[in-house]
């Protein structure tokens, strides 16, 4: 498994939200580009960047800053948040982003996914955010009647090779991942799955690995690193 430190962008700053709530925000850095450089220097193999303002507004809001992050980090960077059009995707991939994450748009327009995977291949990922197994959209403010595993299967049929699965009930809570949900997701598809939500200690990585899911590719860690509950070095040691 790989560990992807998370950089969430809001108002030009590096922040974390508690359970995705825009009203419950903690600012960790006024310089996300420097933060990206720091994670790379500490051994990160990839970074997970979310344009939170983009997710809420439906269009990317931090493109210039993301370009700076890509240049400073020097490692693959995946980016999500508000990517609803082909032009949005082209702009970020053209800026050097390694993988773009489609969220809300994937739920409503599988033909859009077909188009993107046909053009950009494995540079397209789908981010599935769910609570109690049901997909949440628009920055987690709406819960749909669509089951996460159903959307994952549809995405894989559309050619998607990477799914980022976030359990929103555990996100930012530091209590560990939803192992049952993660096992169900990994069993539903054969493509790569990146786990997100509640992963905050080396033992959580161990628990994910003991699921025995060969397609569990990585884990995203955010709040625990910023709050210094653990270190990237400790997480990487267990993951490897």
Shape: globular
Order of SSEs, N→C? EEEHEHHEHEHHEEEHEHEHEHH
- Which CATH architecture is right? Alpha-Beta Barrel
C-alpha termini separation: 6 Å
Helix content: 25-40%
For the record, the count of structural domains works out to 1
- How are strands sequenced across the largest beta sheet? 1-4-5-6-7-10-11-12
**How much is the average pLDDT?**
92
- CATH level 4 superfamily: Aldolase class I
Task: Please give the structural blueprint.
Blueprint: E1 2-10, E2 13-18, E3 21-29, H1 32-41, E4 47-51, H2 52-57, H3 63-73, E5 77-80, H4 86-94, E6 99-102, H5 104-108, H6 110-120, E7 124-131, E8 134-137, E9 142-147, H7 148-157, E10 162-167, H8 179-188, E11 192-196, H9 202-209, E12 216-221, H10 223-226, H11 232-239
Parallel strand pairs: 1-4, 1-12, 4-5, 5-6, 6-7, 7-10, 10-11, 11-12
Antiparallel strand pairs: 1-2, 2-3, 7-8, 8-9
Helix pairs in contact: 1-3, 9-11
């Amino acid at each position: 498994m790989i560990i992807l430190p998370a950089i969430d962008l809001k108002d030009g700053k590096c922040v974390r939200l508690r359970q995705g709530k825009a009203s419950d925000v903690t600012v960790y850095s006024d310089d996300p580009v420097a933060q990206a450089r720091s994670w790379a220097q500490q051994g990160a193999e990839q970074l997970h960047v979310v344009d939170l303002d983009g997710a809420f507004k439906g269009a990317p809001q931090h493109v210039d800053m993301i370009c700076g992050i890509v240049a400073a980090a020097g490692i693959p960077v995946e980016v999500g948040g508000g990517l609803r059009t082909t032009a949005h995707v082209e702009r970020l991939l053209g800026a050097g982003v390694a993988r773009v994450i489609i969220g809300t748009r994937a739920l409503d327009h599988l033909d859009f996914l077909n188009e993107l995977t046909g053009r950009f291949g494995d540079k397209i990922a789908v981010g599935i955010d769910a609570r109690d197994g049901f997909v949440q959209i628009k920055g987690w403010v709406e819960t749909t009647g669509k089951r996460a595993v159903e959307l994952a299967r549809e995405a894989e049929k559309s050619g998607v090779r990477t799914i980022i699965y976030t359990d929103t009930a555990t996100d930012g809570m530091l209590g560990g991942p939803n192992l049952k949900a993660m096992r169900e997701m990994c069993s539903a598809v054969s493509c790569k799955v990146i786990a997100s939500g509640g992963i905050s200690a080396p033992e959580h990585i161990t628990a994910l690995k003991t699921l025995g899911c060969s397609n569990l590719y990585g884990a995203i860690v955010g709040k625990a690193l910023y709050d210094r509950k653990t270190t990237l070095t400790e997480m990487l040691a267990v993951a490897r």
